[in-house]
Amino acid sequence: MFSCLGRSLSRAIPRCHAAAGCSIRLFGTQYSVENPPLPFPEGMAESVKTWAIGSLNQQRNLLSRAVTLLESSLPSHVEQAELLLDYVLSVRRMENEKYHPKQFVPGSFRLGIAGPPGAGKSTFCEALGTLLTSQGHRVAVLAIDPSSTRSGGSLLGDKTRMLKLAYDPNAFVRPSPSNCSLGGVAEHTSDLVMLCEAAGYDIVIVETVGLGQSEVMIDDMVDMVMLLMPPAMGDELQGEKKGIMEHADIVVINKADGPLAAVAARSEAENRRAVQLQRPKAPFWKCEVTRCSALQKTRIQDVWDICARFNKEALACGSLEQKRVNQNSSAMWSQLITQIAASCKRNPAVLEKAKELDAVMKSGGMTHRRAGRELKDIFVKDEYKNLK
Fold first, then answer.
1. Which among 9, 49, 136, 358 has most CB atoms closer than 10 A?
2. What's the CATH architecture for 109-316?
3. The listed CATH number (2.40.50.100, 3.40.50.720, 1.20.5.170, 1.20.81.30) that belongs to domain 46-99
4. What is the pTM of this model?
5. What pLDDT does 211 receive?
C-alpha cells in the first residue's frame, strides 16, 4: 500500500543543542527494524517501520519516503503518518531524557525565510546551506512551492535552484506543494520540520511560497523569521503595514552586488528606519536589518552570525522553550479544524444537506454564514447519533 509512496553557531549554540539534542551522529547508534530503540506501535506497516528507522539513521532516501507519507491526504496514509511521526519523536525524546534530563534542549534551530517572489530566496538558501554544511552542520531545507488553484499542480522548481546543496551529503532539500494553503506554507510543514529534526538535521530552513505580506503562518513553525527582500522594496511605509514585517526577526536586503549595491545600501538604511516604527516582537530582541549577496556569497556569514546570536539569546531567556510550547498548541488547534472539516466533507448527511443549502443560497434565501452553521449542527447531530 505504501510502496508507491559556524563559526558563530558553535559559539552561540552548544553542539549538543545544535545537533538534534541527542542525534545518532553524536552518539554513534545505528538502529534496525530487527532491533528497534522502542517497540513499534501496533498497526504500523512494515514499510513504514523501515522508513522510520531509516529516518533515525539519517538515510535520505528513506527520509524522503517518510516525507511523502506525511504529505499524503489518503485516510490510510494519514493514520500511518501519525504512527511514524509519533514513533521517531518518541525515540528522540527518550534519547534527550537520557543525555539531558530535566533540561530543554532544542533538537534544531528552525529558520523561516519569507519574502516576495524574485527576492532570491532559493539562491540564498543554497548559499547559507552550503556555508553551514562546510562548518560541519546538517541542514534540511523545506521549500514550499505554489500550487495552481485550478489544476492543483505545482512545478516544485525550487530544488533546481539549489542543486549544489541538494547533492551535499549533509543536506536534505525537499520541495513541497502548498496545495493552495494560505500563509505561505503547506498544510503539513510543521510535521516535516519535526521529522527533519528527528532525523538529525541541526538546522531546518523553511522557505515560504513567496506571497509577501501574507506569509505570517511561518511564525507558528520556526524559531526565527527572516524577511528577504530585493533592493528598492524597503520603503519606510513597510514599517506601518501589518503582515510579515511585524513577524520578522531579521530583514535582509539581498542582491547587494553590481549595479544594485548602492540601491541595496539605501534599502538597508530605509528598512532600519522602518523597523523603528514597529513594536518589538520579543522583549529580548530588536529586529535587525542587514544586506548580502546570495549570488556572490558575500556577507552570508554576517547574516548567520545574527541568526546564531538570536538563537543564543532566545534559548538563554527561556523564550525559545515557551515559543515551542505555544507552537505545539497552535498546531493542535489547526489540526482539529482540518480534521473536522475533512470529516464533514465525508459525512453523507452533511453532503446531502449541503446540496439543499446550495440551492437556497443561489436563490438568495440564506447567507453562507447561516448555511455553515446549519451544516455544523447537522454534523454534530449525526456524529452524536452514531456514538449512541
1. 9
2. 3-Layer(aba) Sandwich (3.40)
3. 1.20.5.170
4. 0.85
5. 56
